[in-house]
């Protein structure tokens, strides 16, 4: 797993790079990643064919249900996949957080704009839009690592 501290310049690119490239999988309505606010965001990029993605999602869902919602953390699963594959996967592995689907044409650029130079899945971004600190993890995310990333962003943003 790899942790990167990204600059505010990259955060600015993130907020502009993908406007209009997402839909809420539940209702197919367009949606954008919030670019302002003091709410911690956990963006988990995944695909139904990705073994580590499939493995981490039940634990992340349970964590969100038990702790994330209570702490008002916005957790979003962003699928880089076909709608029918997402639907089929969610029938066997339901999750407690919203699932969005990437509808753009360049998933490699999407991943790079969020700090994933490898383009590997799963990929998780923990950030607070009004703060210039972001933590990223490539590969399967443990709950311990998720909590450490959230706390790191909180600590850095409280000091800012």
From TrEMBL:
Please identify the protein, giving its name as recorded.
Thiol-disulfide isomerase or thioredoxin
List the InterPro entries: AhpC/TSA, Thioredoxin-like_sf, Thioredoxin_CS, Thioredoxin_domain, Thioredoxin_ResA/DsbE_sf
Locations listed in the record:
Cell envelope
Organism's domain of life?
Bacteria
Q: Which Pfam families match?
A: AhpC-TSA
Where the record annotates domain Thioredoxin, the positions are 13-155
Q: Name the Gene Ontology biological process terms.
A: cytochrome complex assembly
Q: What is its main location?
A: other
Organism of derivation: Alysiella filiformis DSM 16848
Write the record's keywords in alphabetical order, separated by commas.
Cytochrome c-type biogenesis, Disulfide bond, Isomerase, Redox-active center, Signal
PANTHER family associated with the record: THIOL:DISULFIDE INTERCHANGE PROTEIN DSBE
Q: Which GO terms describe its molecular function?
A: antioxidant activity; disulfide oxidoreductase activity; isomerase activity
The keyword Signal belongs to this UniProt entry's keyword annotation = yes
**Signal peptide annotation:** 1-19
Keyword Isomerase on entry = yes
Q: Which CDD domains match?
A: TlpA_like_family (cd02966)
**A cellular-component GO term for this protein:** cell envelope
